[in-house]
Amino acid sequence: MRGWRALPLLTLPLWLAAAPIPARAATWDGVDKTVVEKFAHDAGRPPREPLINTDRGDLLLFVFLVAGAVGGFVAGYCYRALFPPGGVKKA
Amino acid sequence: MRRMIDWLVRRPRVVAATAAALLLGTGSPAWAMHISEGILPPAWAGLWFAVAAPFLWLGLREVRRRSGASPNFKVLTGLVGAAVFVISCMPIPVPFTGTCSHPCGTGLAAIILGPAVTTVVAAIALLLQALFLAHGGLTTLGANIVALGVVGGYAGWLVYAGMRRMGFGVVVAAGAAGLISDWATYAATSGELAAALHGGSSFAATFSAIALAFLPTQLPLGVLEAIVSGAAVRFLAVRRPEFLEQPHAAVVV
User: Fold this and answer.
1) Which residue among A4, B76, B78, B84 is least packed, with the fewest CB closer than 10 Å?
2) Are residues B16 and B82 in the same domain?
């Protein structure tokens, strides 16, 4: 039973190492494009521009920066609650 | 776990290679089950909001009730919510198909928080992704909540609870929950798309076509999610078993 512990650790690198294996039409697009949007196009309802489009230039990076800063502040502020010294107390 | 960490510390090259592969593989978010803005006709988009609403109400009521009983519950919910947010936009390349997709994380969340609260954390994750990451959509939020939060969460929970009652161990039950919740989420997305877009052809034919198109990518990813869910729950069972003894788990124990 000891071997199972290494299974997730070994599976992921092996999986990713297999990524360069030539696959049919290996564009690495998400299935949202290859499946969802393909069927939507075929049905005459292509996706439209997002109502709030952050996928422009470095705007997305800025959003990640702000989210990281806010998340880091909240995690720091709640550090004791998140990581209690003696473990989580039962209610 | 200590042995696993020791094993990793003794193999820095393996760790470095894994980290590099992860960084290269996660260059941009993946939005696999997310239905984009404008794909669903308004009537269908509205219907899915109506379907999601009672589940959200149940989840919010559960959050309030359990937060009153345990002050740490909101913190735990926040942590699991963050995990669902990250897992549900983490692109995993599938070499056999040449495409990327993401796991769901709602099966694991349902084991820890229960299915009702999982709906709430999935809704928050999807809302943030739609608002700030330009993916998914605000008009399609209801449909995405139903697929990821409701179907994914409840399917994962039912499988876990059912298998525990049948006497299976936590690792096997959690693995099966991760697997089924992943596949159920994509089946639900297929159903939502087929219902709205089947046009002249039958619902069943369109559903089958969409589900079959998801299959080559999601079949192996479901297995990966099973392994990760089983490992995560095993870790919790050993290190923090109180997380698996939440009130919603009373039906299992």
Assistant:
1) A4
2) no
Residue A24 domain-assigned (yes or no):
no
Are residues B128 and B180 both part of a single domain? Answer: yes
Q: Tell if the CB–CB gap between B18 and A32 is shorter than 8 Å.
A: no
Are B225 and B174 within 8 A, CB to CB? Answer: no
- What pLDDT tens digit does each residue of chain B (253 aa) get? 455 545 555 555 554 454 444 433 444 455 567 899 999 999 999 999 999 999 999 999 999 999 888 878 888 898 899 999 999 988 888 887 888 888 999 999 999 999 999 999 999 999 999 988 877 899 999 999 999 999 999 999 999 999 999 999 999 999 999 999 999 999 999 999 999 999 889 999 999 999 999 998 899 999 999 999 999 999 999 988 888 876 665 444 4
The boundaries of the domain holding residue B3 are 1-27
- To the nearest whole Å, the CA of A41 is away from the closest chain B CA by 9
For residue B84, give Cα distances in angstroms to A3, A15, B11, B122, B203: 27, 22, 30, 7, 31
Tell me whether B30 touches chain A (CB under 8 Å). Answer: yes
Contact A9 B41 (CB under 8 A): no
Residue B10 and residue B83 in one domain: no
**Chain mean position to CA A71:** 16
Q: How far apart are CA A42 and CA B138, in angstroms?
A: 22
Out of A5, A39, A47, closest to residue B210 by CB: A39
